[in-house]
């Protein structure tokens, strides 16, 4: 079995790589930090390939697929956030976020899904966030990108059902995780973060059970429930207050 993981040089991607290697997968690890990727490769040993690539460039995402086909498990984990009033946030960073969180994920999902449907086997895990169920004042672009990931995955799931395909798709929606995300996004989490190792092990258990929504903690499950029942205007006010305290 062969897995390709984007955003694998740190955080959840790195932790998932270790879990999958322990469970017999050969790995293709993709990230921007080549030094970090090499360190992970040295820790994991044989049957690990690394590729340093900036997925915010769409041609790189297409090139990645052309170079590494016949993947059994695709994990679209690459992504980052930013916290600021929308009018104050850096436009180039916003665009880079959209290209990474949405465009690269879209390209890889589409290309690998076509191949998997042809073979009638394969699994795609798209990493979103609990943010994917909520409006996101002060992190509007990030929340919008994760809404896209959730809705895209939900739509594909239904299409696969009607195609009677054996291909599976899941969406991972964690809350705060103790990774480098908060430094990149310029935030401090209101809720206590869980370890990346916990999220990775929980995700693996859910993948084996073919669960679609993967919500790693009870608090995150409750957040999703409240997001479903609360009016959008109320959810926006709550999220704004939480985000404001992070800046």
Protein traits:
9 helices; 247 residues; globular; 7 strands; alpha/beta; 52% helix; 7-stranded parallel sheet
- Helical coverage, percent range: 40-55%
- Rg is 17 Å
Largest beta sheet, briefly? 7 strands, parallel
Number of helices: 9
- Terminal CA distance reads 43 Å
Class from secondary-structure proportions? alpha/beta
The percent range for strand residues is 5-15%
Structure description:
With 247 residues, the chain is α/β, with parallel strands linked by helices. It is built from nine helices and seven strands; from the N terminus they run βαβαβαβαβαβααβαα. Strands 3-2-1-4-5-6-7 form a seven-stranded parallel β-sheet, with helices on both faces. α3 (58-67) runs parallel beside α4 and α4 (91-119) runs parallel beside α5. It is globular. The mean pLDDT is 93.
């Amino acid at each position: 079995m062969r897995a390709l993981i984007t955003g694998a040089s740190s955080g959840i991607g790195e932790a998932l790589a270790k879990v999958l290697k322990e469970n017999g997968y050969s790995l293709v690890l993709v990230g921007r930090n080549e030094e970090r990727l090499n360190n992970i490769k040295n820790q994991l040993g044989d049957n690990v390939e690394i590729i340093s690539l900036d997925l915010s460039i769409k041609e790189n995402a297409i090139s990645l697929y052309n170079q590494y086909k016949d993947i059994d498990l695709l994990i679209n984990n690459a992504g980052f956030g930013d916290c600021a009033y929308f009018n104050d946030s850096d436009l180039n960073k916003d665009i880079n976020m959209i290209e990474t969180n949405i465009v690269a994920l879209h390209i890889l999902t589409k290309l690998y899904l076509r191949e998997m449907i042809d073979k009638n086997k394969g699994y795609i895990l798209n990493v979103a966030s609990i943010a994917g169920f909520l409006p996101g004042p002060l992190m509007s672009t990030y929340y919008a990108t994760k809404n896209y990931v959730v809705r895209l995955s939900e739509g594909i799931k239904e299409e696969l059902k009607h195609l009677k395909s054996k291909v599976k798709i899941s969406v991972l929606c964690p809350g705060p995780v103790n990774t480098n995300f908060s430094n990149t996004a310029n935030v401090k989490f209101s809720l206590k973060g869980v370890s990346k190792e916990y999220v990775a092990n929980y995700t693996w258990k859910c993948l084996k059970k073919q669960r679609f929504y993967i919500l790693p903690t009870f608090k995150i499950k409750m957040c999703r429930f409240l997001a479903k029942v609360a009016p959008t205007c109320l959810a926006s006010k709550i999220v704004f207050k939480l985000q404001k305290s992070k800046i």
